[in-house]
Specification:
Elements lengths: L1 H21 L14 E7 L3 E7 L7 E11 L10 E9 L4 E2 L15 E7 L8 E10 L2 E9 L9 E5 L5 E8 L6 E14 L2 E4 L4 E7 L12 E5 L6 E7 L4 E9 L5 E3 L13 E5 L1
Length: about 280
C-alpha cells in the first residue's frame, strides 16, 4: 500500500509540473506582427526583408509601413539594424523620390517602422522601386525590388507649386476610418528640395472647409484649422462630418507670415478650392 501511495503521489507531482510548464506563457514567442498584413518580401544573399502594413498593400498617398529582417541561415530576426529606405519612381525621362520618414524601432524588438508618401501611382510604363539599405554589426547590406502602388480612388495626396515658387506635397493622414462625429484630422506637408529630397514644413497653417457637393455643397460646424504641435510633425485639427457619404475637404495652405500659398475659400461663386482631399464612408 505504501508503494502504491508513493506512486500515486509521484504521478500527481509529474502531472502538476507538466500543467504548470504548459501554462508558462513566457515560453511562447510573441507575434510582433499581430494586426499587420504582409505586403511582400525582398531578398538578398543574406537576408529576407518582410514588408507589412495594416492592410497588406500600399496606396497612392500616405502609408505606414513596418518591416523586419530575417537571417537566411538562422531564421532569426535581426534586433539591432540601422535602416534607411529609398523609394524611387522610374519614369520615361526622369526618376524621383517622395516624402518619407526615418525607419525606427519603437516598442518592438524585431519590427521597424516608418512613413512613405507616394505622390504618384504606377502605370503601365512607370513604376516604384524600393531600396532598403541597412547595417548590422557595421556590415552594410542592400535589397531592392519593385513595389506595387496603384492609384487611389479618392484624392488623398497632391503636389503643387506655392505662390512662393516652391514645390510641395500635401497628404491626408487621418482619420483612417471617418465617422459621423468630430474626427481628429492629421495632414503632412513637405517641401521638395530636389528630385530626391523632401523635408517636412514647419509652422504653417492648413485651413479646412469640408463640403458635400451632392447635398447642395453644405458644410459642417466646429471644424478647427490644422496646426503643428511638434517640429517636423503632422498638422492636426478637428474635422466635423455630419453624415455619411462623399465629402470634399477644401484646403488652404498658409505660410509662417499667414500668406496663402495655395487654395481658395469656398464662396457662393466658388464651390471648391483648387487644393482638396476626398473621403467617402
Amino acid at each position: 500500500m505504501k508503494i502504491l501511495k508513493y506512486t500515486v503521489l509521484l504521478l500527481l507531482a509529474i502531472i502538476s509540473f507538466s500543467c504548470s510548464s504548459d501554462d508558462d506563457s513566457s515560453s511562447i514567442p510573441i507575434d510582433e506582427t499581430s494586426g499587420l498584413h504582409k505586403i511582400q518580401e525582398m531578398t538578398n544573399d543574406t537576408h529576407v526583408i518582410e514588408l507589412f502594413s495594416s492592410t497588406g498593400s500600399l496606396v497612392q498617398g500616405y502609408n505606414r509601413i513596418s518591416l523586419r529582417i530575417k537571417d537566411k541561415k538562422t531564421n532569426n530576426y535581426i534586433t539591432d539594424a540601422k535602416i534607411e529606405w529609398i523609394p524611387l519612381m522610374h519614369m520615361a525621362m526622369m526618376q524621383h523620390s517622395c516624402p518619407r520618414s526615418q525607419v525606427e524601432k519603437k516598442d518592438k524588438k524585431t519590427v521597424y517602422e516608418g512613413d512613405i508618401i507616394f505622390q504618384m501611382a504606377q502605370n503601365e510604363t512607370e513604376y516604384w522601386e524600393l531600396t532598403i539599405a541597412y547595417k548590422i554589426n557595421n556590415v552594410s547590406y542592400t535589397a531592392t525590388d519593385k513595389i506595387s502602388v496603384p492609384a487611389s480612388t479618392k484624392r488623398t495626396v497632391s503636389s503643387f507649386m506655392g505662390s512662393d515658387g516652391n514645390n510641395y506635397v500635401i497628404a491626408y493622414i487621418a482619420p483612417f476610418s471617418p465617422k459621423v462625429a468630430l474626427n481628429d484630422m492629421a495632414v503632412g506637408i513637405y517641401k521638395m528640395k530636389d528630385m530626391m529630397t523632401f523635408e517636412a514644413v514647419n509652422n504653417f497653417k492648413i485651413k479646412i472647409d469640408p463640403r458635400m457637393p451632392s447635398m447642395g455643397n453644405h458644410g459642417s460646424p466646429n471644424n478647427t484649422d490644422l496646426l503643428q504641435s511638434e517640429t517636423n510633425g503632422f498638422y492636426k485639427g478637428k474635422l466635423s462630418l455630419t453624415m455619411t457619404g462623399y465629402w470634399r475637404i477644401n484646403l488652404q495652405v498658409l505660410n509662417t507670415d499667414n500668406e496663402v500659398l495655395k487654395g481658395e475659400p469656398v464662396t457662393a461663386d466658388n464651390s471648391s478650392s483648387s487644393l482638396y482631399f476626398e473621403i467617402e464612408f
